[in-house]
């Protein structure tokens, strides 16, 4: 991947994904908060590497970045001599390749499935006289996903803020704890769980946000803290192990996190550490919420036991900076990092209601 010049947004909006037709740049989140560097993504191979190496992360952002990396590739193809069917096969194989970069987040596979459906319809269309028409249909569909993700996040933020205010006794002084990073850096913009925090702050009812370090890759201290400071939201960074004590002292009103995948019974796969936060919240009678788009829900899986759990490199635990820095653990010790889950609830009726409202 080629490194682009440092990039800033004229509207002061924090964005991890900068896209114009034929061009894609991803903010290298491994270097935050000390460096703001964008990488040029020229094709699906660059997109795969950026996702796998956590240049871009967060389930919604991963899906959008993958879709757009392929859109950039096909837009810039100098010559494709195949038929519309050949174009469809080309796109399908590339999408399968992109899905292999991060298996846990369902948004990526969901996006690939929807884009394949668009491609199939384009081939069947009477307008599909050549491969370019199929590529054009794909590009337009990927761009719509980018736009829809931002709109979805803002809707989550607005609804989540209203719901929390209506279910809290003291809704004018809320202290919200969150884990990992679920903001503009993890999505196409605004965020899911962090989007709710943004909305509460905009409503003037947020007293303080608490973000955990989120070991071992420190998405909380590096990324969530970065976003909270950027937006001038009152916030405090805490050690992962400090959450239970903070809850015991009565300083947490609500816990809200994001999700990589939600199964039919409500089991939720998210960053490691989420499960322990859910248990602590339950013990202290603190509401625990998961904020995620419908694309994170996978009704094909009955429970979290069926989720393909991503196991990261032990170096992320044994070395500083999520595996990029110096060794800090004793030589010879093994390390295991996986995603984890939260509680369960029946989600079928919720999805049915949401689908009918969107119809």
UniProtKB/TrEMBL annotation:
Q: Where is the active site?
A: 260 (proton donor)
Record site feature (Transition state stabilizer), residues: 180
- A GO MF term: S-methyl-5-thioribose-1-phosphate isomerase activity
According to its UniProt entry, the protein's GO biological process terms are: L-methionine salvage from methylthioadenosine
**Which InterPro entries does the entry mention?**
IF-2B-related, IF-M1Pi, IF_2B-like_C, Initiation_fac_2B_a/b/d, M1Pi_N, NagB/RpiA_transferase-like
Any GO CC annotation of this UniProt entry = cytoplasm
Which reaction is this enzyme known to catalyze? 5-(methylsulfanyl)-alpha-D-ribose 1-phosphate = 5-(methylsulfanyl)-D-ribulose 1-phosphate
Output the superkingdom of the source species.
Answer: Eukaryota
Keyword terms: Amino-acid biosynthesis, Cytoplasm, Isomerase, Methionine biosynthesis, Nucleus
**Matches recorded under Gene3D superfamilies:** translation initiation factor eif-2b, domain 1, Translation initiation factor eif-2b, domain 2
Q: Where in the cell is it found?
A: Cytoplasm; Nucleus
Metal-binding found in the keyword field: no
Q: In which pathway does it act?
A: Amino-acid biosynthesis; L-methionine biosynthesis via salvage pathway; L-methionine from S-methyl-5-thio-alpha-D-ribose 1-phosphate: step 1/6
Q: Does the keyword Coiled coil apply?
A: no
E.C. no: 5.3.1.23
| Function in brief | Catalyzes the interconversion of methylthioribose-1-phosphate (MTR-1-P) into methylthioribulose-1-phosphate (MTRu-1-P).
Q: Give the family per the record.
A: Belongs to the eIF-2B alpha/beta/delta subunits family. MtnA subfamily.
Q: What is this protein called?
A: Methylthioribose-1-phosphate isomerase
Q: Which organism is it from?
A: Turnera subulata
**Top-level taxonomy:** Eukaryota, Viridiplantae, Streptophyta, Embryophyta, Tracheophyta
């Amino acid at each position: 991947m080629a490194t682009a010049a440092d990039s800033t947004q004229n509207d002061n909006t924090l964005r991890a994904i900068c896209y114009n037709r034929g061009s894609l740049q991803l903010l290298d989140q491994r270097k935050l908060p000390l460096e703001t560097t964008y990488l040029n993504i020229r094709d699906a191979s660059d997109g795969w590497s950026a996702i796998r190496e956590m240049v871009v992360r967060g389930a919604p952002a991963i899906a959008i970045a993958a879709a757009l990396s392929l859109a950039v590739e096909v837009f810039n193809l100098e010559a494709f001599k195949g038929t519309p069917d050949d174009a469809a096969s080309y796109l399908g194989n590339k999408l399968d390749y992109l899905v292999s970069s991060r298996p846990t987040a369902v948004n990526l596979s969901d996006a690939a499935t929807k884009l394949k459906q668009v491609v199939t319809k384009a081939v069947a269309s009477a307008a599909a006289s050549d491969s370019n028409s199929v590529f054009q249909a794909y590009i337009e569909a990927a761009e719509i996903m980018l736009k829809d993700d931002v709109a979805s996040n803002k809707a989550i933020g607005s609804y989540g803020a209203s719901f929390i205010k209506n279910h809290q006794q003291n809704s004018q002084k809320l202290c919200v704890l969150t884990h990992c990073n679920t903001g503009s850096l993890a999505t196409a913009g605004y965020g899911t769980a962090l989007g709710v925090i943004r909305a509460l702050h905009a409503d003037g009812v947020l007293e303080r946000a608490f973000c955990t370090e989120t070991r071992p890759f420190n998405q909380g201290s590096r990324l969530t803290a970065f976003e909270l400071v950027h937006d001038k939201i009152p916030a405090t960074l805490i050690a992962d192990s400090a959450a239970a004590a903070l809850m015991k002292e009565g300083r947490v009103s609500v816990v809200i996190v994001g999700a990589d995948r939600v199964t039919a019974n409500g089991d939720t796969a998210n960053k490691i550490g989420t499960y322990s936060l859910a248990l602590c919240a339950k013990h202290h009678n603190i509401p625990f919420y998961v904020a995620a788009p419908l694309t994170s829900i996978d009704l094909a899986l009955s429970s979290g036991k069926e989720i393909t759990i991503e196991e990261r490199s032990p170096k992320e635990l044994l070395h500083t900076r999520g595996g990029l820095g110096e060794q800090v653990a004793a030589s010879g010790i093994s390390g295991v990092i996986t995603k984890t889950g939260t509680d369960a609830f029946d989600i079928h009726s919720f999805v049915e209601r949401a689908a009918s409202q969107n119809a």
